[in-house]
């Protein structure tokens, strides 16, 4: 007996033609294939989560699956909130409406249903549909329901497909949104005032980074997308705002990697009359609050795609605090800071730090050792304190050791999550630091900021928190692209 060969899978072109034909048929029958208003009483996921039998409901969403069983059809209706099963019977809606749904409405289409909640014999929370309204025709099929979007290029470029088919992605982005809202609540409850400062600046300041350039036609001058809001937020301290924060985008025209996106979300906050130690306490408390509220506790498990735990991060307080020099000596040797440049390069290379060169300054060699041998290997929280003044030109010098500044760098999960300073408020020293940083490029010095400082800025503590990296750590994401809805990608050639 000869086996009948399986029918070939339809091509994408054929699938599109079929859906176009169904669109034409709907329109011929007077059905609005791209409809309008539909009053809803519940979201699909919320209805299923807070379920009661016998409710009259109106629910809308995308059709995500369908199982035809003769004169009855079960289908799932869903959105970002989740999904719920619907039961459609020919005896309830009539032959014409039942045939229209099964013949012309596809998985991926949007529909609205009116009906009553019930529980099936198998215990499934469901809607007994009395009326179904097509709302929007999908002219392209959804990704494979079992595997979803597996191509990372499609996952990031067509995020909507990833959100439709991947429960994990939906969960991460809903959690991100709620965490950002909770960060705002946390600061509001501590009397911080949220403000907005310019995204376009004529002098890019607040960090050592390469900016994106643009041109302001009305003023006929070069402008820059901001690399940080710091210098404007400090103007507000001068103006009498004692506790301020901004949670918004920064832009840095630099590399793209697993941990870097050129457009990223940053929290910056400033607290008059505080110092870096108090800012460390604030950040520690805030991150622990987020973990307890959204992650079920202070132990965060990072898992691979198969669900195996790959790393555990323990946020239990108090978090370790240690001076920069002590950490570097612990990684590279007690005599590290007495070595010549040549000896530092030789030892660093023997310890696996390869991108290090003799023509660099001592503090640059120290920093590369720190990044490779301390930062990348620190997964539980570590406040690195009292960093070299050359690395942080906007921080206050330590009164007992003029070679370092009163700062912390919070490292979790092998990367910097947050820097915090006792802010420099001496305009004379600030000018010297900025001039040294700018070198011959005096146009990089923000004279308006220095003018503000000369009017007097109170002593203050300041923080920055990389929100994308924080979300990565708390949700277990391995790439920044997994926590940014629309990461930057190279333009796709036609």
In short:
With 494 residues, this protein is of the alpha+beta class. Helix content is 33%, strand content 25%.
Task: Explain what this protein looks like in three dimensions.
The longest helix is centred in the middle third of the chain and has 22 residues, at 167-188. Helices cover 33% and strands 25% of the residues. The two termini are 49 Å apart. It has helices at residues 12-28, 44-49, 90-93, 95-104, 152-157, 159-165, 167-188, 230-238, 276-294, 324-332, 341-350, 362-374, 427-438, 447-454, 467-475, and strands at residues 56-69, 72-79, 82-89, 110-119, 125-136, 193-194, 200-201, 213-216, 221-225, 243-251, 263-272, 299-303, 309-314, 320-323, 382-385, 407-412, 415-422, 460-466. It folds into 2 domains: 14-136, Beta Barrel (OB fold (Dihydrolipoamide Acetyltransferase, E2P)), CATH 2.40.50.140; 164-319 and 380-482, 2-Layer Sandwich (BirA Bifunctional Protein, domain 2). The protein has an 8-stranded mixed β-sheet with strand order 6-10-11-18-17-16-15-14, with helices on both faces. A 5-stranded mixed barrel has the order 1-2-3-5-4. A 3-stranded antiparallel β-sheet has the order 7-9-8, with no helix packed on it. It is of the alpha+beta class.
Record keyword descriptors for this entry.
494 residues; alpha+beta; OB fold (Dihydrolipoamide Acetyltransferase, E2P); BirA Bifunctional Protein, domain 2; 2 domains; five-stranded mixed β-barrel; 15 helices; elongated
């Amino acid at each position: 007996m000869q086996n009948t060969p399986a029918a070939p899978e339809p091509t994408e072109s054929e699938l599109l033609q079929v859906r176009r034909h169904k669109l034409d048929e709907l329109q011929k029958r007077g059905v609005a294939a791209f409809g309008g208003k539909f009053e809803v009483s519940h979201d699909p996921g919320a209805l299923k989560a807070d379920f009661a039998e016998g409710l009259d409901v109106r629910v809308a969403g995308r059709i995500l699956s369908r199982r035809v069983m003769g004169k009855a059809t079960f289908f799932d209706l869903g959105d970002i909130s989740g999904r719920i099963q619907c039961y459609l019977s020919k005896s309830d809606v009539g032959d014409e409406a039942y045939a229209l749904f099964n013949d012309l409405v596809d998985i991926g289409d949007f529909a609205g249903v009116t009906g009553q909640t019930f529980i099936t014999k198998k215990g499934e929370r469901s809607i007994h549909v009395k009326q179904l309204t097509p709302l929007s025709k999908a002219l392209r099929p959804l990704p494979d329901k079992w595997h979803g979007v597996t191509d990372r290029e499609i996952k990031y470029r067509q995020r909507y497909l990833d959100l439709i088919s991947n429960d994990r992605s939906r969960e991460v982005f809903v959690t991100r949104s709620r965490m950002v809202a909770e960060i705002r609540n946390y600061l509001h409850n501590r009397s911080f005032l949220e403000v907005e400062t310019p995204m376009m600046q004529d002098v890019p300041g607040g960090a050592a980074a390469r900016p994106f350039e643009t041109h302001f036609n009305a003023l006929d001058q070069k402008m820059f997308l901001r690399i940080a809001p710091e210098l404007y937020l400090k103007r507000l301290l001068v103006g009498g705002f004692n506790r301020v924060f901004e949670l918004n985008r920064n832009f840095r025209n630099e590399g793209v990697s697993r941990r870097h996106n050129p457009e990223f979300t940053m929290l910056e906050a400033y607290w008059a009359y505080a110092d870096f130690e108090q800012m460390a306490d604030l950040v520690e408390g805030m991150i622990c609050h987020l973990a307890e509220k959204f992650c079920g506790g202070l132990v965060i498990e990072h898992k691979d795609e198969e669900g195996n735990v790959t790393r555990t991060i323990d946020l239990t307080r108090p978090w370790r605090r240690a001076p920069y020099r002590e950490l570097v000596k612990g990684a590279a040797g007690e005599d590290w800071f007495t070595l010549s440049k040549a000896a530092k390069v030789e030892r660093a290379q023997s310890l696996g730090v390869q991108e290090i060169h003799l023509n660099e300054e001592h503090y640059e060699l120290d920093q590369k050792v720190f990044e490779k041998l301390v930062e990348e290997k620190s997964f539980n929280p570590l406040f690195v304190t009292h960093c070299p003044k050359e690395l942080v030109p906007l921080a206050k010098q330590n009164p007992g050791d003029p070679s370092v500044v009163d700062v912390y760098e919070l490292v979790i999960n092998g990367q910097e999550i947050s820097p915090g300073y006792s802010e420099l408020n001496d305009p004379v020293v600030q000018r010297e630091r900025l001039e040294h940083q700018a070198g011959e490029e005096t146009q990089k010095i923000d004279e308006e900021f220095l003018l503000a400082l000369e009017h007097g800025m109170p002593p203050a503590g300041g923080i920055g928190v990389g929100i994308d990296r924080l979300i990565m750590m708390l949700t277990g994401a391995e790439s920044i692209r997994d926590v940014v809805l629309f990461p930057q990608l190279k333009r796709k050639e036609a």
